[in-house]
Design brief:
Length: 393
């Protein structure tokens, strides 16, 4: 009876409290449920897209359907997110691969960073019990794994967010209700803009736009039909950038104070010049993803991505990292029978990234046409499905 009462209590609490984390299904969403919602949207609109981008934050920030589609005459969607590393990409692709129409193409972007140690598992996409057991068997990082399994379990979800519930309750007692409303609104406007950001320097920087210009620029983006939402990112009270969430799922950053971001970049330590070691566990996940695409006969393109130039500390180290991608990763992709693409990333400078590997708006302007040329041989113009009535005629 006690166990039954506890189960009822957890289920009821989950329904009443945790459901606030679940947003309406829409193509673009941010936060912990963003990728889950976009996948749900894709399941309901399979025939609306013939090009699908998957990957981590480099895909999320660098591959914008609104910019690519006019060049390729395609209809695409971005199904990537911050911190969506291999351990959450596998379960996502296990669900995605059986859904992809035979006329569609999937572009999966990977880089050397994906094969070295990552901080574990985040609340990005449900891993599931079976994958979690495989990850433990493959000696992959277990940090966040149990939290992920509990968080996405309808009954046990409350166990994962009980700390959040307690904190919300304490804040409710400490602050008036109208202050809570202001906090929720502020969190919604900021979204995940700062979630993936490195530590910010405290060095002074001069704002590049006035309040009036900032208001005008924000309103212009908000009126753009391609845009779902716009927010201003402020650092020490200064507006340093705009974050634009495009309707088809990507994250677009416009720098307002470029020197602020160059200063941030100077705080990063470069990679070692030693050849990177491909971790066995991540390699097993990589092969399992390729096998999943292969078994489901998906038209897959594996696209190579890199970090900002300064991260390597010099071209020699950069070539060392590239050689591992060419000799190990590319070769395995070709063994599976999938095409492998890369753009001329040397054409991008540090000014084209807003941190260590995420493209800003100027970087996207350079990268997008190069990517389109690489993808052109493998994709076809999108043809909207005919209405059922027309098909019957």
């Amino acid at each position: 009876m006690y166990a039954g009462l506890v189960a009822c209590f957890l289920t009821a609490t989950d329904f009443l409290y945790a459901r606030r984390f679940i947003s309406p299904v829409q193509p673009m969403s941010t936060g912990s449920t963003g990728l889950v919602n976009r996948m749900a949207w894709y399941r309901e609109h399979l025939n609306d897209y013939n090009l699908v981008f998957v990957g981590d934050s480099r895909t999320y920030c660098g591959m914008h359907p609104e910019l690519i589609d006019p060049l390729l005459n395609t209809s695409s969607i971005n199904l990537a997110l911050f911190e969506n590393w291999f351990l959450t990409q596998l379960p996502q692709i296990q669900e995605l691969a059986p859904l992809v129409p035979k006329e569609a193409t999937v572009v999966w972007s990977v880089g050397m960073e994906n094969f070295v140690a990552t901080p574990g598992v985040r609340r990005v996409y449900p891993v599931g019990i079976l994958n979690a057991l495989h990850y433990l068997e493959w000696s992959l990082p277990s940090d966040g794994l149990v939290d992920n399994v509990l968080y996405y379990n309808p009954v046990l979800h409350f166990l994962a967010v009980r700390g959040d519930a307690r904190q919300d309750f304490v804040e409710l007692l400490d602050h008036p209700l109208h202050m809570q409303g202001a906090k929720i609104l502020g969190d919604a406007l900021i979204g995940t803009a700062n979630a993936a950001e490195p530590e910010r320097p405290t060095a002074p920087s001069v704002p590049q736009v006035s309040d009036e210009d900032l208001r005008t620029l924000t309103e212009q983006w908000q009126k753009d039909p391609r845009v779902a939402s716009v927010s201003v990112v402020r650092d020490n009270g200064r507006p340093t950038s705009l974050t634009i969430y495009f309707r088809r799922g990507s994250y677009y950053r416009v720098e307002l104070d470029p020197e602020f971001f160059r200063e941030k970049q100077r705080h990063f330590a470069p990679y070692t010049s030693q050849p990177p070691r491909v971790e066995e566990g991540y390699w097993r996940v990589f092969e399992e993803i390729l096998r999943t695409f292969k078994n489901n006969k998906v038209n897959l393109i594996v696209n190579e991505v890199e970090e900002a130039p300064f991260v390597y500390g010099g071209q020699r180290t950069r070539e060392v990292w590239r050689k591992v991608m060419r000799d190990v990763v590319e070769r395995r992709v070709l063994d599976f029978g999938f095409p492998y693409t890369r753009v001329s990333l040397d054409k991008l400078s540090n000014d084209d990234y807003f941190d260590y590997n995420h493209l800003n708006s100027s970087g996207a302007a350079i990268f997008t046409p190069m990517l389109a040329e690489q993808l052109r041989p493998y994709v076809h113009p999108y043809q909207a499905p005919r209405p059922a009535t027309a098909a019957m005629r």
